Amino acid sequence: MKEGLIIALVGMGAVFVSLTIIMFLMIGMERIFRKRGMSVHESTAVGWGVAGLGIEREAGVESLDAVEVAAITLALASYMKERGKQLGTSVVINGLCYQVEVGDTTCSPVSVVVSGESHLACLDGEGLPVIGGIAPMPGVQIRDTQHAQVWRSAHPLAQGGYWDRRGWSGRKG
Amino acid sequence: MDIDSFREILSGFIDLGTDPLAIVMVAIGGMLIYLGIAKGFEPLLLLPIGMGIVLVNLHPPLMEGAFEGRPEGMLAWIYSYGIKNAIIPLLIFLGVGAMADFTPLLTRPVYFLFGAAAQIGVFIIFLVAIAVGFDIKEAGCIGIIGGSDGPPTVYMTAILAPQLLGPITLAAYAYMALVPFIQPPIIRLLTTKRERAIYMKYEEREVSKRAIVAFPVLSFVIAAVLIPASAPLIGMLMFGNLLNVSDVTHRLARSASTVLIDVLTVLLGLCVGALMSSEVFLRPQTLVIVGLAALAFAFSTAGGLLMAKFVNLFRKEPINPIIGAAGVSAVPMASRVAQKVGQEENPANFLLMHAMGPNMAGAIATAVAAGIFLEMLS
């Protein structure tokens, strides 16, 4: 009976120790993987973004790949710029919030940072073509001065850049 | 045709007349088949076990030579090569691992504690069994029934007390089928109405894929290092799970969780049934085992439940203690019971997915407990 008692006590203790070790290991491991995965994966939204933005995340929605987020971000940035506005520091896709930062879209390549991870995009070795809408449109009142324009050119006039129907182009040959 | 040939043909009837206890065993086998088919109690197991009992009691040569190490009958061969060396329960555990989803456990790792606490019944009944006169190895095998997990129970009993394999396996699986009747009264006894009505919101928390894949590997390494004797059980469980979560071995995972486990369950059931000949099964000892197994279940349920109440002392957001009762493995029966009892008190509650966490922790904890017994009693 004494031997049985010792086995029971040691056994129960060993069960607790084993499972507690596994428990803490999994907690630690999950935290490590979560931090690494912040750039694209699930953790980005769950922790802070979605709740703060009041967006309900749909069950079963998968987080996107970093490159996908970068592509969507770039498209949104171009869209915003077309309307004379700038993209903020975060985008929400399928209820998941990603921290983003888009560089100058007229530069080649364009830098898109998704939650700290940098991606470079270019089109035929050049910056993205800027469509005509970005030019000051007739009837649009520009506040204060001409300097209030939100766009910049990679090759301003002084450096030989020129403006045509496609927007600012490279230097005149 | 002479009279001897006629007697040969009717030998089955004549043998039955000489051993009336065999008729009782055939009736027990028939009852298990009935419970499996008509009442739906663990039919996947009770049906083969019942058939095994009927077969071996009507035709004992099926198990001829099984215990002498020179098998002759069909079931004796299966027993010698599948059960006696514990291959079948281990491979069944592989299939269980392939079916298992540990994500609910990984989303809230505190549930590991509930699974551990639910093993208290195993060790209490181990002591009780010694006190009532069982050999220490037999006591360990009786105690492990409290973990309510079939493969570890069979594996351990096949190694430590093969003479009790029949009654212990039957008790283990029968009580697993009876979880919906055993657990609710214990839950109601140990919790207040208010505790049972605690609402637990189910939020889908994602676990990184790397953690899901790393979990089976790490668990196995830890278990193998701390309790080497648990390595075969945990190793098979986690290997099966790895097949499932790795996303590159879908075919193997599908086979392990369907065809392999089905075939092995049939073989295990038939062999376990075949071990229940009248002289082995119809003894007062069997009744004591059945009684102790019920107590083991009750203590294990109470252990998980009380651990949940204890954890609540340190939490801002309380856990419904009912899910602690699912710390006995009995997957997924114990989780269903938690869901049902929880909804009776608060219809808005949906505890099933919460309860799956302790449930899976219980499966790991039982394997660890079996390993500890094997380590210390072998």
What does this structure look like?
The complex is a heterodimer of chains A (173) and B (378). Chain A is an alpha+beta fold. Chain A has 2 domains: 2-38; 66-171, no CATH class. Chain A is built from 3 helices and 6 strands; from the N terminus they run H-H-H-E-E-E-E-E-E. Chain A has helices at residues 2-36, 43-53, 66-82, and strands at 90-93, 96-102, 110-114, 117-121, 161-164, 167-171. Chain A has a 4-stranded antiparallel beta sheet. Chain A starts with a helix and ends with a strand. Chain B is mostly helical. Chain B has 2 domains: 10-60, no CATH class; 86-377, no CATH class. Chain B is built from 21 helices and no strands. Chain B has helices at residues 3-9, 11-18, 20-39, 43-58, 74-83, 87-99, 103-107, 111-117, 120-131, 136-143, 150-160, 165-177, 179-190, 193-196, 209-226, 231-245, 250-274, 278-281, 284-312, 333-345, 352-377. In chain B, helix 5 crosses helix 17 and helix 9 packs antiparallel against helix 10.
Secondary-structure blueprint of this entry?
The complex is a heterodimer of chains A (173) and B (378).
Chain A: H1 2-36, H2 43-53, H3 66-82, E1 90-93, E2 96-102, E3 110-114, E4 117-121, E5 161-164, E6 167-171
Chain B: H1 3-9, H2 11-18, H3 20-39, H4 43-58, H5 74-83, H6 87-99, H7 103-107, H8 111-117, H9 120-131, H10 136-143, H11 150-160, H12 165-177, H13 179-190, H14 193-196, H15 209-226, H16 231-245, H17 250-274, H18 278-281, H19 284-312, H20 333-345, H21 352-377
